[in-house]
């Protein structure tokens, strides 16, 4: 199978993310292991908090977003990892019963100076709920291999 | 039990994180659900990648870091959530068998203009492996309630 390479990620290209339904059980399971704050573990505690209901940990939303990227394009790409995230904003609570979807948009693509044959693609990632409200906005750079032979002329 | 409040987070104060041992089983379990790229699922694929071994997803490291914060100080704090992360850098691979620890350092604390009685505390978070190598560096702001009555004079 031919994988997507650096040259396939032109600025402006969009890749759809999701949909993914967020269940109360999943929210509680993730929080029990990684973020056991009351509003992520219990409906009543969530309603009493500023989040307004049983709400996913921001890290859960981020992990689900990672999976959506994998399923949309990353597993089909000759990707070499990401050194981090430029920023991540959890704009609105993600509540049990919400369905998330969104898009990754290529904002920049450039050759990596320190490694021949690898490009750096910067994405803006938007994740929304079923009402179209932005719940998670982030940006990051991913290392992606160039088409074989491309490094010769780089 | 008296919880930690905004006034307890003076700039310069440090809170220890970890230790947390990262097992191959945990790395594979997280990756299977959230980041099923080969280097996070399989020892051999990890060795063949630039990560050099079965390596935790950056999001797994981030989620473990969240749990370390909860156990160190966050669950003992009257915290009101975090709007996001300013940046997160995965500096080195986290491999199966590594043990993570580190610290959260208060870099800034200020009153929130839009909400009386809430302060914003900015932390720098450092997570290292058992050799003292920085594997994850991040910064974020957390909303923390002020001592009761403090908002009157704010």
Automatic annotation (TrEMBL), chains A, B:
Pfam family, one: MaoC_dehydratas
Occurrences of domain MaoC-like (ranges): 11-115
Annotated PANTHER family: BETA-METHYLMALYL-COA DEHYDRATASE, MONOAMINE OXIDASE-RELATED
Protein name in the entry: Putative enoyl-CoA hydratase protein
Superkingdom as given in the UniProt entry: Bacteria
